[in-house]
Amino acid sequence: MSTPPSAAQTQQGYAWGAPPVIPPPPKKSGVGLMLAVIGGIFVVIVAVLTTLALIGNELKGGFPRARFTLTLPHTLIDGHYKLAKDSSATLGRTLEKNWARSWDAKAAHGVVGEYVPTAGDRGALVVTGMYGRFKHTGKVRARVLENHDRTTSHVTLLVPPKDVTLSGSGTTVACEVLTRTWRDGKRVTYPVCAWADGNTWARVAQMTLNAAMDSDLKAAARTTLRIRSEMVKAIG
């Protein structure tokens, strides 16, 4: 039979008496606590910056080499159209500003030209494009067709954009049909086509009498490819 602890044992904290008192850990100084907090924040910041750098490198990567440029020849389509106005110094600069922060474009330069029939017929070919380094060309092509100038006229989309791939061509052209109405009541329906590759993209508004009467997307795509073959030139 066990005997109850003595008073001395109880005071010393053994057996049935009060448990021994564990002294608290020494308090950290204010400076040490601050350094620990700053160190933790620094680790988090480094991790975030590393992640952002990896994302940035991924976004910046994948651009093709600059091997081709986009020009405005004096004539197009075997001389059937002649250059009437070169707006690259004005509207082209606006394009460059609009695309300066695009993740799909790098070192891009704007080209804008208006061509009229050499035979004196009514209408015009308006070419708006850029040359530089582009990726995700399908998205670029779609973006190009989304941008319609509505500052002086109203634009209605009659036929939505469709990808047209002609036999024997490795370049995909997207085409749509628009109706543009000016404030004075004039109206014209015409096809618009666009291409985009690693070094160039262009949007060709075929505001000519034949195109307006026909609006055949395959014919418009064929004309666009001919224009592309005459405007795209190898660098050097």
Key traits:
236 residues, eight-stranded antiparallel beta sheet, two-stranded antiparallel ribbon, 6 helices, globular
Outline the structure in words:
The strands form 2 sheets. An 8-stranded antiparallel sheet has the order 2-3-4-5-9-8-7-6. A two-stranded antiparallel sheet has the order 1-10. The longest helix is centred in the first third of the chain and has 31 residues, at 30-60. The radius of gyration is 35 Å and the shape is globular. The chain has helices at 7-12, 30-60, 91-99, 137-146, 209-214, 217-231, and strands spanning 68-70, 75-76, 81-86, 105-117, 123-134, 153-164, 173-182, 187-196, 200-208, 232-234. Helices cover 33% and strands 34% of the residues. With 236 residues, the chain is of the alpha+beta class. The protein is built from 6 helices and 10 strands; from the N terminus they run H-H-E-E-E-H-E-E-H-E-E-E-E-H-H-E.
SS elements, strand count: 10
Oligomerization state:
single chain
Written as H for each helix and E for each strand, in order along the chain, the element string is: HHEEEHEEHEEEEHHE
Through-space gap between termini: 108 Å
User: Main β-sheet: number of strands, strand sense, barrel status?
Assistant: 8 strands, antiparallel
Radius of gyration: 35 Å
Q: Please state the structural category.
A: alpha+beta
Q: How many helices does DSSP assign?
A: 6
Q: What percentage of residues falls in helices of 4 or more residues?
A: 25-40%
* Strands in their spatial order, largest beta sheet: 2-3-4-5-9-8-7-6
Low-confidence stretches: 7-26, 48-59
